[in-house]
Amino acid sequence: SLGREVAYPSQYDAGLLFPIPRAAGRAEIGVDGDALPFIGHDRWHAYELSWLDARGKPCVAAATFIVPCDSPNLVESKSLKLYLNSLNAERFNSDEAVHERIATDLSARAGADVAVAFGLPEMAEAEAGESIDAQDIEINDYGPPNPSYLSSDQAQVVEELLFSHLLKSNCPVTGQPDWGSVVLAYRGPRIERTGLLRYLVSFREHAGFHEQCVERIFQDVLTFCQPSQLSVEARYTR
Fold first, then answer.
1. 0.85 cut: is pTM over it?
2. Are strands 130-131 and 152-170 parallel, antiparallel or unpaired?
3. CA dist 168 to 28, 67, 113, 199, 214, Å?
4. Three-state secondary structure call for residue 150
5. Which residues contact 68 (CB under 8 A, 6 or more apart)?
């Protein structure tokens, strides 16, 4: 279905899920599927999940799917979205029945047990951090990313975690917006919050892949604020 116009599914259809063997991609990088040099998983966040209860009342939820890296197949992302949308008109007797149906279908396509949980995991240590979003400031620079806003107070050495939910960039392929939250955990000279927020907002009209945006934020903060320790995590809704 990828790259083709596809009709919106009107009824449940597990056949929409399209498995892709991992072997071909791993062969290109010299990885033997029988002796993986790493451990890990693919973690998918489903923000658009809905179904009908036994009496026809709509239910909505978010969910997390974890596919183990030693599964023979991954599931192509567009097919996963189509599959989830095919549940919109399906009636279930309980939330547990929805959970079981999705886990069964994904596990069959992946060739291994796929874990399914309602809800989304928290960003790393976000609850222990400080939001920079409530600042009462004027902003009129929305791109390209401008690291000149970044600065730090060399007289104050701190260890803290800062986060913002105002990160937005655009997909370089489709031009569609990508919305995200970003967490900075660092030790070093105290980062000036106003400049940091202006810097993050300057990504608003920038065209860049998620991974590249995160790497750019890391490099700019490292260069202009000079922390001795730094980690950056971004959580995009897509």
1. no
2. parallel
3. 33, 27, 34, 12, 12
4. coil
5. 41, 110, 112, 113, 114
For residue 152, count CB atoms less than 10 angstroms from its CB and return exposed for 0-12, middle for 13-18, buried for 19 or more: buried
Helices (H) and strands (E) in the chain, counts: 5, 9
Q: Tokens 């107070």, residue?
A: 153
Known catalytic residue: 178? yes
How deeply is 35 buried, as exposed, middle or buried, from its count of CB atoms within 10 A (0-12, 13-18, 19+)?
exposed
List the structure tokens of 126.
């976000």
Per annotation, catalytic residue among 105, 178, 213, 225: 178
Decide if 171 is catalytic.
Answer: yes
Q: Which of 164, 177, 176, 174 is nearest to 217 (CA)?
A: 164
Active-site residue among 42, 53, 113, 171? 171
Report d(CA 215, CA 203) in Å as an integer.
13
pLDDT tens series, the chain, 238 aa: 666 777 778 899 999 999 989 888 888 878 787 888 888 788 888 988 999 999 998 998 999 999 998 999 989 888 899 999 999 999 999 999 999 999 999 999 999 999 999 998 776 555 678 999 988 888 999 989 999 999 999 999 999 999 998 999 998 767 788 888 899 999 999 999 999 999 999 999 999 877 788 888 989 999 999 999 998 888 887 6
